[in-house]
């Protein structure tokens, strides 16, 4: 396993022991910075399914818009929603198995399946079409909204390594850290969910 990584925020160490893997890590930095009296919410996003990701971001954005400090921790399949759409970005130097994992996983939020009524890939297209017709924000707009609202989005470091991905495979503005860094936030949260 690799050593400590840093977030996009200079001087912020975010690696730690990850509960979804093994290996020694440095002491964790908190997933979110809260001010005294600010209510917190934590969402652990495990699913790669479009409808569940949409629900997670809708809830997180609602919480952030109401003034809560929000942490979203993405682990295992959940990290795929935050991949960059270009599958070849950062592929140089990757092992064959890393490239195979990258090829098999959804390449961005636009490639996520539905949890039901997949219809060989037609289901997500129909849902997105209905969302546009009804003026419902797309998943991509929800992700951008979360970043604009200051939602702390943290990728599980061990999941990133396990899937053969790199920091450059993901959107800008994300943190990489271990699950233990979010346990404190979840323990102090008025709302804590696994999706």
Uncertain residue segments: 1-34
CATH fold descriptor:
Hypothetical Protein Ychn, Chain: A
Give the radius of gyration. 16 Å
CATH architecture: 3-Layer(aba) Sandwich
Please indicate the percent range of residues in DSSP E strands (runs of 2 or more).
5-15%
Number of domains: 1
Euclidean distance between termini CA atoms:
27 Å
Encode the helix/strand succession as letters.
EHEHHHEHEHE
Number of strands: 5
Number of helices: 6
Q: What helical percentage do the residues reach? A: 25-40%
| CATH level-4 homologous superfamily | DsrEFH-like
CATH structural class? Alpha Beta
Main sheet: strands, sense, barrel: 5 strands, parallel
Q: Which sequence of strands runs across the widest sheet?
A: 4-3-2-1-5
Shape: globular
Give a quick precis of the structure.
This protein has helices at residues 50-65, 96-104, 122-134, 139-148, 157-162, 180-187, and strands at 40-45, 69-74, 152-156, 175-177, 191-194. The protein is an alpha/beta fold and 195 residues long.
Your description of this structure?
There is one protein chain. The protein is of the alpha/beta class and 195 residues long. It has one domain (40-194): DsrEFH-like (Hypothetical Protein Ychn, Chain: A), CATH 3.40.1260. Helices cover 32% and strands 12% of the residues. The protein is built from six helices and five strands. The protein has helices at residues 50-65, 96-104, 122-134, 139-148, 157-162, 180-187; strands at residues 40-45, 69-74, 152-156, 175-177, 191-194. It has a five-stranded parallel β-sheet, sandwiched between helices. Helix 5 (157-162) links the parallel strand 3 (152-156) and strand 4 (175-177). Helix 1 packs parallel to helix 4. The longest helix is centred in the N-terminal third of the chain and has 16 residues, at 50-65. The radius of gyration is 16 Å and the shape is globular. Mean pLDDT is 78; it is low at 1-34.
